[in-house]
Design goal:
4 copies of one chain form a homotetramer.
Chain A lengths: L18 H16 L6 H8 L3 H7 L3 H14 L9 H30 L3 H28 L9 H17 L6 H15 L5 H5 L1
Helix pairs in contact in A: 1-2, 1-4, 4-5, 4-6, 5-6, 5-8, 6-7, 7-8
Chain D binds a DNA duplex (31 and 31 nucleotides) through helix 2 and helix 3.
Chain lengths: 203, 203, 203, 203
DNA sequence: CAGTAATCGAGACGGTACGTCGTGTCTTATG
DNA sequence: CATAAGACACGACGTACCGTCTCGATTACTG
């Protein structure tokens, strides 16, 4: 036996695997510094000490590159693996808001970029939106499983309302703080949880 | 006596008041035809048979002009003045969705434009967002007044979740149809209405 | 009578008539300094303190601009208006060679540029080649008129051989000095003048 | 003993001696098809099924490669070995013009390429210009030897005028036909041949 | 009824970013 | 070593908009 691996290694000079990360780092730093629109493709390439073409070889647009750059930092969303749904939601939201403290402006611009670039919209959904939606959906489904949440709850819509509400604030320049997180979580939970209303409990 | 009013009319040639509307019309038509990003300021001015400066004299940016153009058509939001809150919400939403059928792409781009232009964000909030938020808030407050909705409902957050949910879908390219409207309305109403849960009714 | 001139002055802001000359000057200086290929359109525009578009508005290519720049200096070809043909030819050639001392490299590159750009070739012929050809042709025709040169001399071909010979040297990097001028003039004159051969005179 | 020859055969993989010719062929075909400037080094390499480096290992530039490619076809210049000088010149010229029918555009671009690349200019002179100059010079010298041409004829200049005249036409897009060949030959011969003038013969 | 001043269409102007192209060098694995 | 493939840094290209400016011409009110 001669060759184990089907090692379909493409011929030619392999891509320098230091250049991708250095582009991501450059993108991230420059966007945080000058804002998304204040940064050109040229600037990122120059900062990374790289030719422009080398960038285009990896990402088709500034938006895709910046998305990748900000996905890294946001990837490590720490999520409570169990506990009451409301608590887990709140914890998630507080974490997200903390990230947005720094990344908010960039994320807003990525959402903006997706509005006239269907290809990027797909990337953005797949890389950013859906993972986060899934986290929240999982919390809801766990809640159903352990009896906290109504069996017939409209999970999909609850997720949309949950994320939508803070996108709405984010995109409109509103403040995203702990109080907001609490109120939003409360609102959604009221809609889908089994727990009797407080008012009724008092009766 | 020649003139009654001391009307501080500025000297010089008065503005041609046909030019504003023709710019709005041109903007609207071109954006619907080629998409927001497919239209340049020059194109709009040319289409309206107007110099570029004449446009800048009235609006500071493409976004502001297009906002004005699309505000006109959306201005005549017909809202039920009374009835049950859920019904009124649903009616509003269906109307909005009907408008978005045509204007959706433009609105998405306006939201996008606001993400890196604080000045325009203010205009957009004042002209587009807040009027619509107020309509929904009013419905909620009416609901409280007539006992449909809990006195301590978080109206502001409910509005954010309500609008946010369909913005979320709009910006992500989701479908905005009657079913979505119904499910969203239901979710929000469940959260804030007094009506006892179905489950409890069955007890 | 109200208006005399049909003054078809085009509308819009008139072109700044200082910008053309400053571009020509910049082009000339930079090309002399760094060579034709060492100069980019951007460099010329920057040197002239002008936007790139402003340059493209006046000339369609670097070649056309540089041609114009070097036409100016070469325009003042001083030509003897009478005298013996051979003397006038020689005087012309010496003058040309003096110009080429400085402009030679640029001219060579202009000829080169014309080889893959038919549009520019036309400009180059009209602006550079033909005026110079005409000067020499005129000398020949004067020579015919005053009996120095054969009536049936092939003026066109003589011009081609005259100019061609020194283009040949120019393009091949040969030296263009007074001796060359003398020998070339002699050769051509021998071909077309009436004067009996020296050899025959000696018989 | 395995190998006989001490032949200083370089170590490593020997050059594939099919690759050179296939590059020449690819270059020739592509340049004839798309024009010199319409062809990139990459295209030639790809057409020949060869890596780019392999090309650079053999020729330092596109110009050198294309020169080599077109030298092949032009190498077989058939020249009359004796006869009257004028006849031999004419025959040569007609042959050259026939070649230029096809290769003209490429040759023009090679001349152009030489204008900003001294290294290539040397190659071009050595490979293309001088052999052809020598052919013509030889014809002239033979003419001197057999008494057709004046002993003190300026052969070098005659060659320059002869070649220069048709370069001039070639580079300026003029037509190179039999009539041109005849007129040019006539002009040069008149200048350097011993034959008495027609006018004088009629005396 | 001349003077003043702002508006209008048109287009020049200095900039900036874009995406593509070609060049010559380099770096792999495979002969 | 040579080779095919392709990455890489670089830099020019021509285009598209942008927001501002500068024209002649127009159109009102003012003194």
């Amino acid at each position: 036996m001669t060759k184990m691996t089907t090692s379909t290694r493409s011929p030619g000079r392999p891509r320098d695997n230091k250049v991708g990360p250095s582009l991501l780092a450059a993108a991230r730093q420059l966007v945080l510094q000058h804002g998304y629109c204040g940064v050109s493709i040229q600037m990122i390439a120059t900062e990374a000490g790289v030719g422009r073409q080398t960038l285009y070889r990896r990402w088709p647009s500034k938006a895709e590159l910046v998305l990748a750059a900000f996905l890294e930092s946001a990837g490590d969303a720490d999520v409570l693996s169990d506990g009451r749904a409301e608590k887990r939601l709140l914890h998630f939201l507080v974490n997200v808001f903390r990230n947005l403290q720094q990344d908010g402006p960039a994320i807003r611009n990525l959402i903006a970029s997706a509005q006239d670039d269907p290809e990027f919209l797909k990337s953005f959904r797949a890389g950013f939106v859906e993972p986060r939606a899934e986290i929240v959906a999982t919390i809801f489904r766990d809640g159903i499983a352990n009896g906290e949440i109504l069996e017939d709850a409209d999970v999909e819509m609850a997720v949309a309302a949950f994320h939508g509400a803070f996108w709405y604030h984010l995109l409109l320049g509103g403040k995203l703080d702990a109080e907001f997180a609490q109120r939003l979580t409360r609102l959604i939970m009221k809609s889908i949880s089994k727990e009797p209303r407080e008012e009724e409990l008092l009766k």
